[in-house]
Amino acid sequence: MAVTFVGVRHHSPACARLVRRTIETLRPAYVLVEGPADYGDRLEELLLGHEPPIAIFSHHRDGPLVRTSWSPLCAHSPEWVALNAGRACGAELRFIDLPAWHPALADRRNRYADAEERYAAVTRRLCREFTVDDTDVLWDHLFEVPDDADLAERLDAYFDLVRGESAAGPDDAAREEYMARWIRAADAAAGGRPVVVVTGGFHTPALRALAAEPGDGRWPEVPAPPEGSVGGSFLVPFSFPRLDSFSGYQSGMPSPEYYHRLWEHGPQRAADGLTEVVVERLRRRGVTVSTADLIAARTLTEGLARLRGHRHPARTDLLDGLVSALVTEDLEDPLPWSSRGPLRPGAHPVVAEMVAALSGDRVGRLHPGTPAPPLVEQVIAELERLGLDGADPVTLRLTDGGDLERSRLLHRLRVLGVPGFGRESGPATGTEEVLEERWTLRPGEHRLPALIEAGAYGATPADAAMAALEERAAGALGDAAALAGVLFDAAFCGCGELADRIAGSIAAGIAASPDIGALGRVLDTMLALWRHDRVLGLAGGPLPAVVIERCVTRLLWLVEGLHGGPAPAEPARLSAMAAVRDALLHAAEGVGLDRTAAVAVAARVSADPQAPPDLRGAAFGLCWSLGRTADPARAMLGVASPRTLGDWLAGLFALAREQVLAAEETGGRSVLTVLDELIGGLTAEEFLVALPALRQAFGYFPPREREIIARRLLDLRGVRGSARSLLRTTADPVTTAQAAVLEETVDRLLTEEGLMSG
Predict the structure, then answer these.
(1) How far apart are CA 48 and CA 62, in angstroms?
(2) What is the pLDDT of residues 403-437, one digit of tens each?
(3) Rounded Cα distance, 578 and 188, in Å
C-alpha cells in the first residue's frame, strides 16, 4: 500500500505546512481529504480562486426539520492547502467523509470542530505534564512554535496517544469505515503511485488499520438523502469572528488572525505585528499607550517565550506579555485564554481588545462565478425592483399596495435572519391604528453569507420564510407565547394564505401547551385579526381560523381537567375564558366551533365542586352569555362561603357582566339582590375575609356600570341619594372592615366580662 496518512489538527498552520510539503514531495496520484463526499463532484467550484475564509454550507430539510452545518476553510487550514497543493501537482482530489445530513454527523454544526471531549483524559494528563493551562497552549508548545524537524513523527505520536486503545463511538466508527473504503479504492486505482490522506488526527490511527483490510477496489457510493427530504451544499463567505472559539464557535483553533499571520510570516513577525495592532486598537478607544508601554510589552513577551522554552513567542506568550505591560489593576476573572469558550461579559476592556485583535475581522470573498442558491438571485432582484437595495431609511404606508409588498419582503428577510434590515417602528398586530412602518437598511458584507444559508429553507423569499416559520412552530411545542410570535411573523410576511403548510405544526404546538393564560392571549389576538384585520389581510382567513379552533378546543379541555380547593381568582385564565366566549359568539360558524359541546363542557365545570371557584363562575357565565337559561342566584348560593364567594363572582362578572346588568333591569331576585342578602348576613370578620375577592370581582365593571350597581343597591334599601357620590368615598374599605371587626370584638369581650352597660 502506497498510502501516506497525514493526521492534522484543523486550522493548524504547522499541519498545513506538513501537508503542503508532503504533497509537493510525493506528487501523489490521489489526495483524499476529510470533507463531505456529496460535494466531491463540485470540487472545481471550491478551487475557483476564492479568498478564504470560506465554508461549505450543507443543509438538509425533512418536513419542518432543517439541519445545517459548515465545513470552514481558511488559508492555513490543512484541508484547503491539501486541495490546492494537490491540484498544483496534478493529483485527483476527493472528499471522503459522509455527507453532513448523515446521522453520524447530524449533531455536528461544524465538521472541523475539535473532538477534545473524546480524549479529554489524555489531554488533561499531557497539560499537567507540560504545566500548561489547556490543549490550545499545549498544541502551540508542541507543534506551532518549534521548527518543523520531525514534525510528522511528533504528530503521529501525539495522535496515537490521544486516540489510545479505546473503541470509537458509533458515529466515528461509521465515518471511519466509510473513509477507509475511499482509501482502499484510491490505492487500488493509483496502480502503485502514492496516495495522500489528510484527515483529523483523531481518525488517523483507525484509518491506518481499516485501510489495510481487504477491499473490492470499487469507489464507494455517495449516500443520498432519505426519500422525501431535500439537501444540498453551497459555498459561503466565512469570517474570522465566526471561526474563533472566543466567539463561541466550535473551531479547531482560537484566535484565527494570529494563526493566519503565523502561517504567512512565522511566529516572530506574527507577534510583533499583532502587538502593534493591539496598541492601535487601544489608542482608538482612548486608552493611553506610550512607546515605553510598547517596548515593555515586547520585552515581556520575549522574556516569557524564553522562560517557557520557546525559540519564538507563542500565542499565549504574546497575550501574557501584553496584559502584563498594559493592564495595571488587578483582574477579577481568569484570563480568557486560560480556558476555552466565549469571552465573558464584562471582561476588562484591554483584555477584550487583545482578544479581538488576535481574532481578526477578515471576511472571505467568493469568486464571482460561484454558484449560489436560487434564493440569492431572487432576493437581489426583488430588492432592486422594489427600491430596497439602498442604505436610506424607508417609511412604508401599509394601506398602499406597493408599500405592503415591500413590507412583506422585508419581514421575510427579517424572519430568515438576513442582516441589514432593521424595523424601527410599526404595528404589533393587524388590529391597531398604526398604519406605517419605518425600516433602516444597512447593506453589508454579511448579507450574502446569510442569504446563501437562508437558501436552505426555499428558493423564494415567501417559501423560505414559511419554511423557517414552520421550523420555529415545530420547535415551539407547548410554548404558546413562542407560537404567537410565529403567527404574527407569518401575518407580517404575508404567509397567512399558506395556512395548510404551517397548520399542522401550529395545531401540535397548541395541543401540547399547558399555559391557559398564554393560550387565551393567542386566541384573543387571533380572533381580533380574523374579525377585523384589514392591514395584513387576515380577516376571515384560514390561518387565524385554524388557531382559533385549536385554542378553543385546548382551553376547554384544560379547564375541565383543572381541580383544586378554594384559591384566588386568576385574571389570566378568566381572560382566556372570555376569549373562548367571544370566539363562540362571533366565530363559531366561520371557524367550525361546536357551541353545543362547548356549553356542555362549561355546564359540567360550573357544577363541579372540585373546580376552582373562579372557573366555576366563569363557566356559569359562559353558559349564560351563550343563552343557556339558569338561575344565577341559586348558583351563587352554592358558593356562598366567604372564602369562595368573591372568586366565583370574579369569574361570573368576567364572562357575563352584561347579563348581570340586564337581569337587574327586570327586577326580581337578581344576582345583586341575593348578593346583598348574603353580604348582609356575614359577620364583620367573615366580611373582612370576603372583601379582597369581592373588590377584585367588581373591578370587572367599568365606572359607569358600577354607578348603575350603586343605584340598584340604594333602591334595594329605599335610600334616596347620589349613587355617584357613594362611589367617591375616600375611606379605605379594608380599613373600614377591619374597624368593624375590631368594634365587634371589643363588644363581644365587654359582654363576656359583664362590662357592657345597658
Answers:
(1) 31
(2) 999 999 999 999 999 999 999 998 876 666 678 99
(3) 75
